[in-house]
Design goal:
This protein is an alpha/beta fold. The chain contains 13 helices and 13 strands. Helix content is 40%, strand content 18%.
Length: 462
């Protein structure tokens, strides 16, 4: 809970306990509802409204209305007084439970020296037809977001989930949750700035591309992205249109994930997902091509900031499979990371062609099932560069995204494993950074060669 939320809930307790144990209301008790009302006003202005605090707002208003009766000495009958006091206590318990169960998400803070800037833009690839629409004249178009090392923390604060009024209900529905459940997510403090001037110190910066999972979103791994950027990387993420939860384009068009558009019976299969991961790999290539244009474009905020001699790729789930596919087909990939990757759609060729880049897999012990695990281990065993296979115990598929950070109840909802979510993300970010620092910047990485300092982590080395 946030500071003023704690104040509000704490100031409600004295009137509640007094109502439970005494029918007398001393006049000094009115201090608490007045202070609670002032704390609520400050909370709304400083921290911002969120629906989880509605019971606390209501209880504060009730006590403020009753305060004049306490001054005048007016009392309720004993039975009514007890009933109201118990009702008030129940409301207070709900008021505590809601913000604890659904807190404002707090991402692990970036540890690097750079501030973080970002921008989002629409890209249209006029050389590629869209394979998931019936119109043969449709070209592939995607929304992309870029995060970059910034010189200072200036500009507009970035929101975690732009177009929240549209995106929030759609994403909640993907996980069978009430539509309003994510309405508070943009209260998350990102320390990321839109329009911040790009840093010159350390430029040009290595480039990393991120690919989300099936029905995921481009910002689903913001915690990891912020960590990388703070250490001097430019990170770009593609919202893979039709395969992501939703795309909201600047002209108002909204495309929501519909599995029947991608798969014959609406169920994802490795065979039908093969053209999908190829399309996503081409999306990443198109983003790199576009970035190369920005690098030469006079006046672009990132002009001259990209180092295309050092390019890394990472992705989650289907995006992990697309990462493997991209590194197979594009020699710009210098290093790749798959987070609980779905590698079956990549196809049999990956077992004979083999990846030529250093690679790191990080995932659950199950690795999305026996067949996928066998394919992943076969890919790993065939790698020709120093590579790593990290298994993190007590995790589930979404522990490799920010989703597990949204609520302490994600294990009960089946959205994460039993591992502490913040601890899990910090471990992954630490190894992700060490791997890219080693493969793209040439830095020593004892973390990759030494025994794991984390008992939950098992490291296979090739």
């Amino acid at each position: 809970m946030r500071l003023y939320e704690i104040f509000i809930l704490g100031l409600l307790l004295p009137p509640l306990f007094w109502a439970l144990f005494s029918r007398q209301r001393p006049t000094w008790l009115t201090v608490f509802p007045v202070a609670g009302a002032l704390s609520t006003i400050l909370h709304l202005f400083v921290e911002g409204y969120r629906w989880q605090m509605v019971p606390a707002y209501g209880l504060t208003a009730v006590f403020l209305i009753l305060a004049p009766r306490w001054v005048s000495g007016t009392q309720n009958g004993p039975r009514l007084g007890w009933l109201l006091a118990l009702l008030g206590l129940l409301t207070w318990l709900i008021a505590v439970a809601l913000p604890v169960a659904m807190p404002v998400p707090q991402l692990p803070g970036p540890t690097g020296p750079y501030a973080i800037g970002t921008f989002t833009t629409q890209l249209v690839d006029e050389t590629r037809p869209e394979i998931y629409t019936e119109d043969p004249n449709d070209n592939r178009e995607v929304m992309v977001q870029v995060w970059y090392p910034a010189a200072e923390r200036t500009g507009e604060p970035a929101y975690y989930l732009p177009d929240l009024d549209v995106a929030g209900p759609v994403i909640a529905e993907q996980f069978g949750l009430p539509a309003f459940l994510l309405n508070h997510i943009n209260l998350t403090e990102l320390d990321v700035w839109q329009g911040a001037p790009a840093a010159n110190d350390g430029a040009p910066f290595p480039v990393i591309i991120f690919s989300h999972g099936l029905s995921g979103i481009r910002m689903q791994n913001t915690a990891m992205v912020r960590e990388l950027v703070s250490h001097g990387y430019i990170v770009g993420a593609v919202d893979h249109t039709y395969g992501n939860a939703l795309s909201v384009f600047p002209d108002g068009r909204v495309f929501i994930y519909d599995p029947t558009r991608l798969f014959t019976d609406g169920r994802s299969t490795p065979t039908e997902a093969n053209p999908l991961v190829r399309q996503w790999a081409d999306d990443m290539a198109f983003l790199l091509d576009t970035m190369a244009g920005w690098n030469e474009e006079a006046g672009h905020e990132l002009n001259g900031r990209f180092d295309f001699n050092h390019v890394g790729i990472f992705g989650h789930s289907t995006g992990g499979g697309a990462t493997v596919q991209f590194c197979l087909q594009d020699n710009r990939c210098q290093a790749g990371v798959g987070l609980d990757s779905w590698v079956l759609p990549v196809g049999e060729a990956v077992l004979t062609q083999e990846l030529a880049q250093p690679f790191m897999f990080i995932g659950t012990p199950e690795w999305l099932g026996d067949e996928n695990k066998r394919r992943g281990e076969a890919i790993f065993n065939g790698l020709t560069q120093d590579s790593y296979n990290l298994t993190l115990a007590n995790t589930a598929h979404y522990d490799f995204t920010d989703l597990a950070l949204l609520s302490p109840l994600t294990p009960q909802l089946g959205l994460s494993g039993t591992i502490n979510s913040r601890y899990s993300v910090e471990i992954q970010s630490e190894y992700l950074l060490a791997f890219f620092n080693h493969t793209l910047k040439g830095e020593a990485a004892p973390l990759l060669t030494a025994p794991s300092p984390y008992p939950e982590l098992t490291i296979g080395r090739n």
